[in-house]
Amino acid sequence: MQLTDYIRTIPDFPKEGISYKDITPLLINPKACEFALSKLIEGLDGKQIDKVVGIESRGFLFGMLLAKALGVGFIPIRKPGKLPSKTFSQAYDLEYGSDTIEIHKDAIHQGEQILLHDDLLATGGTAAAACQLLNKLGGEIVQVNFIIELDFLGGRKLLPNNKVNSLIRY
User: Does the 45-169 domain belong in CATH 3.40.50.2020?
Assistant: First the structure.
């Protein structure tokens, strides 16, 4: 199965000059979804995972599927003001602006083995900020998973101390 068959490009979204990689066709197809999930798990090579962390919002989709398949808890990283308890926050830059993400202070315990997931690696700012939050909480990042990686934006360079697994690379 070719996962690229289930990704569509939307020109000039969310702003002019951006070619948005849309995973909606992948989500619509249960066989393609199951195949992608199996490839994400296969990439772990049997490593111990204590929790899966997903980045808002599309990182929640496969993040939850990964947590369920691995039999572990799921932790959301969200935009400011969306989490109800005490949080740590981290600001970052992305290809079309800047933003901040947050995680509950009690979400990760010292030494827990963490799988971080998001749908797309572009410039790497969001993933790097998430890694900083996880490190602040004492989590040990086993791997950072993505459905899609845009190689030409060099986001992997912001994750030099992490194993990165991307299913599709453009």
Answer: yes
For residue range 58-96, what is the model confidence (pLDDT) as tens digits? 999 999 999 999 999 999 999 999 999 999 999 987 666
Residue 46 is which amino acid? G
- Name the catalytic one among 58, 102, 112, 156: 58
76 DSSP β-pair partners: 54
Q: Which amino acid is at 94?
A: L
Q: What is the pLDDT of residue 96?
A: 65
The H or E element containing residue 51 is strand 51-55
Name which of 7, 4, 1 is nearest 35 in CA terms.
1
Q: Could you confirm whether 169 is annotated as catalytic?
A: no
Q: Does the annotation count 95 as an active-site position?
A: yes
